[in-house]
Amino acid sequence: MLDGQLYDSMDKELVEDRRRARAHVREYDVHGAYTHEGTQVLKRLLGSMGDDCVIETPFRCDYGYNIHIGDAVFMNFNCVLLDVCEIRIGGRTLLGPGVQIYTASHPLDPDVRKQGLEDGRPVTIEEDVWIGGNAIILPGVRIGRGSVIGAGSVVTKDVPPMSLYAATMATSTTMTPKQKMLTGQWFCGIDAELDADRQRARELCAKMAKLEVNDIPARTEVLKELFGSVVESCHVELPFTCDYGYNIHMGERVFLNYGCVMLDVGEIRFGDLVLVGPGVHMYTVNHPLEVAGRHQNLSIAKPIVIEDDVWIGGRSVILPGVIIGRGAVVGAGSVVTKDVPAYCLYAGNPAKFIKHLTPPEQPRESEGEKARNDGSLQSPDLLVSGSESDVVLP
């Protein structure tokens, strides 16, 4: 059952597990939400539960131990979770009254059903989702972060992040160009809301460019306003250009050298301790190959992810949808069209595998990292151009 294979639901162990869950549910009905006793019952019933959760009664489930909910989740009256497989609900998610989540399914073949066999597929609901009353979530569905499901919807397929889905068969309602952009759909970039967002980013970049070179605190404050998320240990040399800014997210101690350009139509996420050489371009946006589509000003976004401890050489280009794995190095002037595995050196146009790199036995702060942290590190240029050369920090 837990592996998603066909199984006999009348197995003695499973029958006993369901009996146990029903006993806990009945006890919870007695105590109800907002009581210490009720919370203790839920902790015994569920696989895991975060802080400040509220589950109104009545509430029903099959096993309980396959349900995992984050912090501040709210379930209204009469929710039913058939947790044959895992149901994971992210923090701050709201479930309206009568929501039903099914991980259980049955064979279409009646002869197989006669044997009492069934199977299941997990359901995942990410953070900050709102599911309207009497909605039904079918097996295998994943609902992306921040999405909203209309009341009475039947969700049969995955829902992208930051989307509104509604109606009996849960088809997408009309979305603004910005909503389409943020959910990876084709959108028209000629739009008043997007124009205003781009203008805001340009004004903030211009504001940063006018600051004194050594006024790092003021530059950091502008970056906090410009980027989706950034920490004070990050450093961005000027000039720097981006489309929107709010799609850029930086981990600890990220260093961007002079003249970097980030077309952040989709998300660009940096891990910790990332070095980006001068003139590096990152493009999350793409356009139709057909002329007719370009005449309609259509664009589409694919996110870029740069994991921890990556070093990208100067004047490299990172194309839409690329993930650069932890500890990887990209040679100067490379054009990265595909994912780069962790701890590998890639270089060239298009970037190709050069050699494997040795992962550290224990993470430590290198001399180069210490220098960058205290502000003494200079331009991180790569001394490779496609050959099996060593990579040298200046």
UniProtKB/TrEMBL annotation:
Which residue windows are coiled coil? none
UniProt key word Transferase: yes
Q: Which domain of life is it from?
A: Eukaryota
Q: Which UniProt keywords apply?
A: Acyltransferase, Transferase
In terms of InterPro entries, this protein maps to: Hexapep, Hexapep_transf_CS, Hexapeptide_acetyltransf, Mac_dom, Trimer_LpxA-like_sf
GO terms for molecular function, please?
acetyltransferase activity; O-acyltransferase activity
Residues of the Maltose/galactoside acetyltransferase domain: 1-51, 178-232
Basic and acidic residues compositional bias, start-end: 362-373
Pfam families documented for this protein? Hexapep, Hexapep_2, Mac
Give the span(s) annotated as Disordered: 356-394
One cellular-component annotation, GO: cytosol
Gene3D superfamilies (alphabetical): Hexapeptide repeat proteins (2.160.10.10)
Q: Which family does it belong to?
A: Belongs to the transferase hexapeptide repeat family.
| Protein name in UniProt | Maltose/galactoside acetyltransferase domain-containing protein
Q: Which organism is it from?
A: Lagenidium giganteum
Give the lineage: Eukaryota, Sar, Stramenopiles, Oomycota, Peronosporomycetes
